Amino acid sequence: MEGEKPTTLVCTVLAINHTNLCYRVCAVCERTRPDNDPTSLCKFCNFNAFNSVSPASKRLFRVLMSIASDTKVFTVICFDRMAKVIFGCSADEFFDFAKLHPFAAVSASRILEGEMFKMTLSKPKNGNAQHLRVVSIVPLRTGFQPAIETLRKLYGKRVGC
Ligand SMILES: [Zn+2]
Questions:
Q1: Interior/surface letters 9-35, b for 16+ CB within 10 angstroms, e for the rest
Q2: If you measure from the C-alpha of residue 26 to the centroid of ligand 1, how many angstroms do you get, rounded to a whole number?
Q3: What's the 3 CA to ligand 1 centre distance in angstroms?
Q4: 93 CA → ligand 1 middle, Å
Q5: Separation of CA 57 and ligand 1 centre (Å)
Q6: Considering its fold, how many domains does the chain have in total?
Q7: Containing H/E element for 107?
Q8: Domain span at residue 127?
Q9: Would residue 75 count as lying in a domain?
């Protein structure tokens, strides 16, 4: 993984950090919001939740996972757009599902562990960021289903989602 060019490789997901799959951002400017403070003003864009019909904040995926190529094990970070490919829903939908099914995050990581993907990894532009970033992800197994599909089957569709 030397040099600055993104690398594409075939890899297997070894583990997913299921304790922290998403984070909260301002619904307007998408800057990170404190998790314990969902209603106050966003200090960046001064978006006021009380004057608006849309929610003040939303969640985005930020998934830390370890993957293995044929030669190496990496820890990579998968942001919202790529995580949606493997989870099959938005972070808000997943969070709501997990409220009804407390083990959904654990189950989702178990479902995805062992799956093979073609991933493109790039070095973070921010020098302080420590993990390679997934910039493209393609499931390789025929019949791959996003985690939420399998979860819905597991838990049944009766409640919520
Ligand atoms: Zn904002």
A1: bebbbebbebeebbebbbbbeeeebee
A2: 5
A3: 35
A4: 21
A5: 8
A6: 1
A7: helix 104-112
A8: 7-23+61-155
A9: yes
Q: How far is the CA of 125 from the centre of ligand 1 (A)?
A: 23
Between the CA of 52 and the centroid of ligand 1 the distance, in Å, is 13
Flag whether 42 is in a domain.
no
CATH, residue 141:
2.40.50.140
| pLDDT tens over the chain, length 161 residues | 445 789 999 999 999 999 999 999 988 888 888 776 655 667 777 655 555 555 678 999 999 999 999 999 999 999 999 999 999 999 999 999 999 999 999 999 999 999 999 999 998 877 777 899 999 999 999 999 999 999 999 987 655 44
- In sequence order, what are the beta bridge partners of 22? 61
Backbone phi, psi, residue 79, to 5°: -85, 180
Query: Is residue 31 domain-resident?
Result: no
